[in-house]
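User: Please write out a complete single-protein record containing the residue sequence and its fold in token form, without commentary.

AI:
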Amino acid sequence: MKSSCLNNISNVMFIADTDEMSAEGGEKMVTNMVIFLTVLVYGVNFLVYMYIKINHIKDYLEKIAIYFGTNMTLLFTSGIFLFFGKLVEDGILAFE
């Protein structure tokens, strides 16, 4: 009787350790995705700045429209990536 009780306790402790390790891995995935998307947004904004500078766009309304359109598209796609990344992360954790 005592050995089965000890086995159950050790199994529960092993499952708790595994859950903690998988949660840390999931947090790392979301952190890496946020870093990647931040670099992507800044990179695309730099390319838009260079495009406006090279093509000598003088109209301020056109500049603002280009910047807002680009940034709204980037924020929308970033949100989609983070949403589906979180779904995949939670799905993987639920299957374990």
